[in-house]
Design brief:
The complex is a heterodimer. By secondary structure, chain A is α/β, with parallel strands linked by helices. Helices cover about 40% and strands about 20% of the residues of chain A. Chain A is built from nine helices and ten strands. Chain B has helices at about 30-40, 55-60, 115-135, 165-175, 190-205, 220-230, 270-280, 285-305, 320-415, 415-425, and strands at about 15, 40-50, 80-90, 95-105, 150-155, 180-185, 235, 245, 250-255, 260. The chains are: A alpha/beta, B alpha/beta. The interface between A and B is large, with 89 and 99 residues. Strand 1 of chain A pairs parallel with strand 3 of chain B. Chain B: It comes from Oncorhynchus tshawytscha. Chain B: This is Septin.
């Protein structure tokens, strides 16, 4: 039976009384509160760039790996480790399972060739796990989501340009995950140095065809584009992290105290931490997860399904086009 | 800054940590809602019920608008499902509403198969979604979901009990769709009869093991109202798009000489309860149950039917996808092969028939030739005979002329014996007169 779409003068206009369709928003909100949310953030960067501190600052609690594990004598590992720690946090009735994935050892070796490999492997393994559950016959009501929603890449504040390692990593990983580059420990750069550095970085990203979050091609409409263009003009955010509070002008603020002044973390005149927090948590969190599930994951899935089809086709001696049907 | 929240006990693998200040992820539900608003919503209702129970009118009343529709014909051979999609908007919410009507349900003399086309329709929508889900390149988030989220089952207001058609149909549908039974045109029943009727219906449903949709009571915000409403099922409704002036307001009502039934008056009927439950409180839950329960069941059964198992080690990870594809290709291949076979057979038959006909034609020709030849032979024979007769005749004529000539000569010459003798010699003895 053919479907026809007719626009009917909606309720709430003229003499019509209220139907209550918009009550669905409240129903959705209720459902979301009941189910809670999941967020998986990965932090990548050399040792000493303040990754753990930044995570703790973002989530105002001890969520980083170091807070969980005994780090009495922190040794830089000889290879890259992937360490994942999960926390249940709650705010105003909204529950979230936050997983922070740390990558100690990245970029710390003398020879850092292929250091992106274990990270790439980890990210793909999460996609694989999700896919496996999705294709089960008896599958869970809610498939546990361990996919990496966002990868924060820490750029050391050299002030000049991106290093080959940075370019190589971001080039490869931006194809499989949302990359949010940040300039770490930005309190060592003056505002002019910072702006110059940012511009250089943006140029280099463009020159190398690296699409960091928010990717231009995924802007949904004009409004989206407008908002995201503003963000794209500001990245990478220059951040400073801290979990220490200090008294400033009669208020207790998060900051870093030095002899020449106190850097207020949440003061946008001092650093761009607040922009990063707003982007990741307050405005674009849902979008980051959406892009991960409807784009990055789907790309992985298509590749995997085609891979398998080819393999099976070869095994059966069939020409490949027999297996991949009209969908392609 | 916000006060510190005490975190709850952690689930597996996660520890609960308190927050030292306002982080801001409490905006997540808003972010989610905004995304959905931009995307729009979709809701599909199936109305099952006999002709004349006011299905279309009830839909019009529920959604406060006049849905277009041609008056349905009632002379169709089976039960047809007619579906129409409408775009409604209320404040910033855009809803794509699909209303599916069963045309001709209960009209047949033999109603044994009435439920079949309904089940088939529901399954077709599940199948379409499954196909999309199994595609290699898929677009699930922009897929127009046509799966039925709620089935309003219209019970005729007889006041006695459910018809066997009702029981059979609901039993066949209860594992496939959320059923909300309603008593249609309930202004035909008095209040006391209605109470008895509802009790009878409920007990019949229970004793026949029909699982109707239960309004969810796990969320404390709506648990109370939902459980109260569960006790009022089936809802006794009255629909009307006509407005009548009551006091100084215009209300939707049905006007009779003995009084006016007000649709939105809870003392008169359960319309308001239905609207509350179906739209204002549980629309999202109906959608979710359809996806997580009914669809999953369909999917599981369909895949098991095709011979898949989760525990098969070799089959992981993609036997599902690729074997589904392979099976489909195989099926298509078989279909093609069959088609080819049939075509070959047809061609063969045609050839054979052609040969037969040619053979027959040849025979006919031969026969014709034979007859022709016979005819010619006969003709020739006759001609020959004729010729010989002619020759004889000519010969005789000549002889006669010659004889007459001799006779006349003989008469002139006083008779010539030679001629006579010749004549004698020639003529028969009895002809000789001398």
């Amino acid at each position: 039976t053919p479907h026809s779409c007719k626009t009917v003068p909606g309720p709430g206009m003229g003499d019509f009384s209220y139907v209550g369709i918009d009550a669905i928003l409240e129903q959705m909100r209720r459902k979301a509160m009941k189910q809670g949310f999941e967020l998986n953030i990965m932090v990548v960067g050399q040792s000493g760039l303040g990754k753990s501190t930044l995570m703790n600052t973002l989530f105002k609690s001890k969520v980083s790996r170091k807070s969980v594990q005994a780090t009495s004598q922190e040794k830089i590992p000889k290879t890259i480790h992937i360490k994942s720690v999960s926390h249940d946090i709650e705010e105003k009735g909204v529950r979230m399972k936050l997983t922070v994935i740390d990558t100690p050892g990245f970029g710390d070796q003398i020879n850092n060739e292929n250091c992106w490999q274990p990270i790439m492997k980890f990210i793909n393994a999460q996609y694989e796990q999700y896919l496996q559950e999705e294709i089960n016959i008896n599958r869970k009501k809610r498939i546990p989501d361990s996919r990496v929603h966002c990868c924060i890449y820490f750029i050391p504040p050299t002030g000049h340009c991106l290093r080959p390692l940075d370019v190589e990593f971001m080039r490869r990983l931006s194809k499989v995950v949302n990359i949010v580059p940040v300039i770490a420990k930005a309190d060592t750069l003056t505002l002019e140095e910072r702006d110059f550095f940012k511009q250089k970085i943006r140029e280099e990203l463009r020159a190398n065809g690296i699409d960091v979050y928010p990717q231009k091609e995924f802007d949904e409409d004009a409004e989206d584009r407008m908002i995201n263009d503003k963000i794209r003009e500001m990245i990478p955010f220059a951040v400073v992290g801290s979990d220490q509070e200090y008294q400033v002008n009669g208020r207790r603020l998060l900051g870093r105290k030095t002899k020449w002044g106190t850097i207020e973390v949440e003061n946008i005149a001092h650093c761009e931490f607040a922009y990063l927090r707003d982007l990741l948590i307050r405005t674009h969190m849902e979008n980051i997860k959406d892009i991960t599930s409807s784009i990055h994951y789907e790309v992985y899935r298509v590749r995997r399904l085609n891979e398998n089809n080819t393999a099976v086709a070869h095994a059966n001696g069939l020409p490949q086009h027999h297996m991949t049907s009209h969908e392609m | 800054m916000a006060a510190t929240e005490i975190a709850r006990q952690a689930g597996e693998g996660a520890r609960a940590v308190p927050l030292a200040g306002h982080v801001g992820f409490d905006s997540m539900p808003d972010q989610l809602v905004n995304k959905s608003v931009n995307h729009g919503f979709c809701f599909n209702i199936l109305c099952v019920g006999e002709t004349g129970l006011g299905k279309s009118t009830l839909m019009d009343t529920l959604f406060n608008t006049k849905f277009e529709g041609e008056p349905t014909q009632h002379n169709q051979p089976g039960v047809q499902l007619k579906s129409n999609t409408y775009e409604l908007q209320e404040s910033n919410v855009r809803l794509k509403l699909t209303v599916v009507n069963t045309v001709g349900f209960g009209d047949q003399i033999n109603k044994e198969d009435s439920y079949k086309s309904i089940v088939e329709f529901i399954d077709t929508q599940f199948e379409a979604y499954l196909q999309e889900e199994l595609k290699i390149k898929r677009t699930l988030h922009s897929y127009h979901d046509t799966r039925i989220h709620a089935c309003l089952y219209f019970i005729a207001p007889t006041g006695h009990s459910l018809k066997s058609l009702d029981l059979v149909t609901m039993k066949k549908l209860d594992s496939k769709v959320n059923i909300i039974p309603i008593i249609a045109k309930s202004d035909a029943i008095s209040k006391s009869e209605l109470t008895k009727f509802k009790i009878k219906i409920t007990s019949e449903l229970v004793s026949n093991g029909v699982q109707i949709y239960q309004f969810p009571t796990d969320d404390e915000t709506v648990a109370e109202i939902n459980s109260t409403m569960n006790g009022h099922l089936p809802f006794a409704v009255v629909g009307s798009t006509e407005e009548v002036k009551i006091g100084n307001k215009m209300v939707k009502a049905r006007q009779y000489p003995w009084g006016t039934v007000q649709v939105e008056n809870e003392n008169h009927c359960d319309f308001v309860k239905l609207r509350e439950m179906l739209i204002r409180v549980n629309m999202e839950d109906l959608r979710e149950q359809t996806h997580t329960r009914h669809y999953e069941l369909y999917r599981r059964c369909k895949l098991e039917e095709m011979g898949f198992k989760d525990t098969d080690p070799d089959c992981k990870p993609f036997s599902l996808q690729e074997t589904y594809e392979a099976k489909r290709n195989e099926f298509m291949g078989d279909l093609q092969k069959k088609e080819e076979e049939m075509r070959q057979m047809f061609v063969q038959r045609v050839k054979e028939k052609e040969a037969e006909l040619k053979e027959a034609e040849k025979e006919l020709h031969e026969k014709f030739d034979r007859l022709k030849k016979l005819h010619q032979d006969e003709k020739k024979k006759l001609e020959d005979k004729k010729k010989s007769l002619d020759d004889e005749l000519n010969g005789f004529k000549q002889k006669k002329t010659a004889a007459e000539l001799l006779q006349s000569q003989a008469q002139q010459a006083g008779g010539s014996t030679t001629l006579k003798r010749d004549k004698e010699r020639k003529n028969k003895p009895w002809l000789c007169t001398e």
